[in-house]
Amino acid sequence: MNSSSIYILVFVQLWLLSLPCRESVCIPSERETLLKFKNNLIDPSNRLWSWNHNHTNCCHWYGVLCHNVTSHLLQLHLNSSLSDAFYYDYDGYYHFDEEAYRRWSFGGEISPCLADLKHLNYLDLSGNVFLREGMSIPSFLGTMTSLTHLDLSLTGLMGKIPSQIGNLSNLVYLDLGGYSTDLKPPLFAENLVYLDLSSEVANGTVPSQIGNLSKLRYLDLSFNRFLGEGMAIPSFLGTMTSLTHLDLSFTGFRGKIPPQIGNLSNLVYLDLRYVANGTVPSQIGNLSKLRYLDLSYNDFEGMAIPSFLCAMTSLTHLDLSLTEFYGKIPPQIGNLSNLVYLDLGGYSGFEPPLFAENVEWVSSNQLEGNIPTSWDKPMLLEFLNLASNNLSGEIPDCWMNWTSLVDVNLQSNHFVGNLPQSMGSLADLQSLQIRNNTLSGIFPTSLKKNNQLISLDLGENNLSGTIPTWVGENLLNVKILRLRSNSFAGHIPNEICQMSHLQVLDLAQNNLSGNIRAVSVT
Q1: Which of 151, 30, 181 is nearest to 80 (CA)?
Q2: The pLDDT of residue 61 is above 90
Q3: CATH assignment of the domain containing 511
Q4: Each residue of 20-32: b (16+ CB within 10 Å) or e?
Q5: Is residue 138 part of a domain?
Q6: In this predicted model, what pLDDT tens digit does every residue of 371-406 receive, in sequence order?
Q7: What contacts 358, CB < 8 A, 6 or more positions away?
Q8: Residue 386 lies in a domain
């Protein structure tokens, strides 16, 4: 390139930089298409108030994103969040406010005029349960070949997935979670990276054609109780080596976990709840990148916790609850220094999902012995559940190594003695459940420093002495205080009345006496 060409190039670049930033002004024909689309929607909360002729620039309309150079409409974000309609009540459960959800979400029809938006690459209508309720996915969506992202999860759609969806050759993200259908090929474009068919989506078997989606990284088939129909997890899933996320939990699969799962070397997330029995294949230990592993609600009766799991040092989440594992807790679990969540517990009083009326739920694990004293290395644990086992001995004085713990559940075991002093080092602890053991001695003084506690359950033990006044002075965030069925004596301290967040106070079946002052609770 000669010097004159360089000067010209520099001049052009400087001229372009000197131009003012161009504001996207929508194309009139695309604005009219949006208005037609709006006319078929039901919008009880008037979220689309800006969609009118008085606001001519549709690129500024709610949920609309345009190209900043061509001004073509690229994305429509018209999703509704179901989570916003849930609220936490005094009974300790979350409830769904259907009326509030109806007032916020969209209903009505998906107009075929959407197909006129030739440049649209992102369409999210998720969470609108009353949108096109009871009807199938409109086939015209299969003509919108610019789409790369399509989310129709948790809408009112049902029926067969139109074969035209397979024509969307540019599609990389497809979420049809909550869509009731049969999985029959041909279904999905070969460029898919993300595929979610969770929550009562499918009947029958998983078509082997899914195994041909060589670019797929995320696959969620969870909560399809009729998918698999009692057969084992298909081994062809073990050939999908691009997968980083695989969720088959609470499907209809039963049987042994195929060892081919160990070939998924890029896997980071693996959820196999309630799909397996027999043994855990050692090949899972080959998944060196795995961070999340959930094998709960399976029947591995007669099997000890496999030692190879203790060598998977990338794990941050390990759930082996309700699996019928027996024997001692392997001390090598203490080597999992990145672990944030560890659940080795059994049944803790929660209810199984409502669809599972014919499911035989495993009631507990059968782990025994002491908590390993070799767990003396610092860990990042935030959640620890060892409930409903046959663990015994004293609770070890090792809690100073796990100072990130927020939730500890040791209930329904055979622990003796009192709480160790190092329990007081858990400055972030919010929930401590140690009911139904054989703890003895006075009210644990180690808890005096745990002023972030929200739920404290020491019921069904052999604790004695008085309830100290510092309980009401220091534990001011507690909402649930359960001390029933111990041997506490004396008066209930007046300081309990300072616990203004208290919602549940259970002191039954102790030797307490005197009058109880009125307690003001929120």
Answers
A1: 151
A2: yes
A3: 3.80.10.10
A4: eeeebebbeebbe
A5: no
A6: 887 677 778 899 999 999 999 999 999 899 889 999
A7: none
A8: no
Give me the domain span that covers residue 449.
418-522
Q: Quote the CA–CA distance of 118 and 30 in Å, as a whole number.
A: 9
* pTM, 2 dp: 0.85
How many Cβ atoms are within 10 Å of 85's Cβ, its own excluded?
19
Closest CA to 110 of 71, 157, 65: 157
The answer to whether 317 and 291 have CB atoms below 8 angstroms apart is: yes
Burial tier of 196 (Cβ tally within 10 Å: 0-12, 13-18, 19+): buried
The model's pLDDT over 255-293, given as tens digits with 9 standing for 90+, comes to 899 999 999 999 999 999 999 888 999 999 999 999 999
| DSSP assignment letter at 340 | -
Contacts of 387 (CB under 8 A, 6+ apart): 345, 346, 348, 409, 410, 411, 412, 413, 433
Q: Which two tokens stand for residue 307?
A: 């030692």
Amino acid, single-letter form, for residue 14: L
Query: Which residue, chain included where needed, has tokens 């001995």?
Result: 393
Going from the C-alpha of 324 to that of each of 117, 368, 439, 460, the distances in angstroms are 55, 12, 25, 25
Question: From start to end of 163-268, where are the E strands?
Answer: 173-175, 181-182, 194-196, 202-203, 218-220, 245-247
How many whole angstroms separate alpha carbon 172 and alpha carbon 211?
A: 16
Q: What is the CA radius of gyration of the chain?
A: 29
Question: What is the distance between the alpha carbons of residues 156 and 105, in angstroms, rounded to a whole number?
Answer: 12
* Burial class of 445 by CB neighbour count within 10 A (0 to 12, 13 to 18, 19+): middle
Query: Whole-number mean pLDDT of the chain?
Result: 85
Number of domains in the chain: 1
